[in-house]
């Protein structure tokens, strides 16, 4: 795993760690089951505070990218399992809310397409 932190960039260091690990997991560069360095070890190697790396790991775990197995370490999670469940739940809640607001399926889908277009242009 190779991470590069650019302090001069606008993104916070924890966000850079989070984004790079997420991208490497998504691309397969970090395969499912790959053991990640400890928070302290990674922080030391990157010259960051342990809390910065811990914040990135917490965000990655919340997103379903990694999983912590207690004293056994932190590993790249099976791709999509937790993320797919979370997105499905959010989609269900959105669909129910759109129906209650009186939107047609076409109107609700158009709103989702607009939101996704905006989110993926970042």
Question: What can you see in these coordinates?
Answer:
It is built from 5 helices and 3 strands. Helix content is 59%, strand content 7%. The chain has a 3-stranded antiparallel beta sheet with strand order 1-3-2. It is elongated. Helix 1 (13-27) packs across helix 3 and helix 2 (39-46) packs across helix 3. By secondary structure, the protein is mainly α.
User: In the CATH hierarchy, what is the class of the largest domain?
Assistant: Mainly Alpha
Largest sheet: 3 strands, antiparallel
| Number of distinct helices | 5
Strand content: 5-15%
The general outline is elongated
The number of distinct structural domains comes to 2
Range of helix content = 55-70%
Unreliable segments of 5+ consecutive residues: none
Widest sheet: strand ordering = 1-3-2
| Average pLDDT rating | 89
Order of SSEs:
HEHHEEHH
CATH architecture of the largest domain: Orthogonal Bundle
CATH topology of the largest domain: Arc Repressor Mutant, subunit A
Calculate Rg over CA atoms. 18 Å
- Output the structural class: mainly alpha
Distance between the termini: 24 Å
What's this, in brief?
With 122 residues, the protein is mainly alpha-helical. It has helices at residues 13-27, 39-46, 50-62, 81-100, 105-120, and strands at 35-36, 66-68, 74-76.
